[in-house]
């Protein structure tokens, strides 16, 4: 088993670096209902899931039993050819680290350096307070992350990965798909939203408000296009890698939005608390914190792994992390799985109308798709009860068949990257 896994993984590396002849040609894949087709390249398989690369370069995972008989046969044949190509490839003898680097994006490299630390070899409490204040004023996320002890960083990374591993891939990616579509609707259909009689009259349309609208749409799209919405990538998530990749785009988008919404005085530091060290020694300190609203409180700091943190955080950290892990484990319980299944059904109810809004090419088409949803939501809020006026608009529940979004809707997008290892017995061979 270990040998066959090594062989298949090497084939994936070879196809990514040298070009595997059979994988360079897109194949036609059809779902089990026969209603939906996709042109995509075969990349491999894992645990009964087929990895495909769409024409736009994005990668999706499709459960094997959701493919029709012809596509299943095609997958087996391509899988066999990949194994044969891997067996003849020198890539199989490459060191493990080299193989992993070929299939894992840099943003998931937990050892990736973030640059020289601003805290130095042995920071004092006074130095830490000064550096943190400046980092908050400049929205310097790298420095704020670097202010945490290594143990705390590892706990956060591990718990985030654990969350992703316990959540249903289709639910995680389905939420991501909704975020992407929402961002597109706000950006591409702004004129139709503002022109709708139900909402346009209530939305401010002065130049500043429209700037805020555009910035908010950009921020939502930045979230949707980031690794946060990819179940596969989040299973290998690290804050270090994220801050070097998608985190930069996210931070830039939210800074732009924040700048438009900041204090009218133009003071970008208005929301940053003022901190002053009252007393300190080698391992502890007392800091006076003045909040933006004028409230003053005194906080204790202690040194943990060469970083200064609030004393109550240090005292409770291990206990809180353990509670978090216990909560994350419950996600995979029968009750948790049922809740995730219910949530997936709700995603279909949201995704369909968003598809209809995106497809609208005129104000009348947009209103036809939007007004039933608006009326339904208004009725739910007004009556304080579930349900509402019938229907979900022309979009309905989405295509179905393969999932709420079909092949092109991201229904099976379990991650945009080929997994670190492909199972050798994916198709029961």
TrEMBL record:
Domain SLA1 homology positions: 27-68
User: Which superkingdom is the protein from?
Assistant: Bacteria
Signal sequence span per UniProt?
A: 1-26
* Keyword line: Signal
What is a single Pfam family found in this protein's UniProt entry?
Answer: SHD1
Gene3D superfamilies, sorted: SLA1 homology domain 1
The protein, known as: SLA1 homology domain-containing protein
Please name the source species.
Answer: Stieleria varia
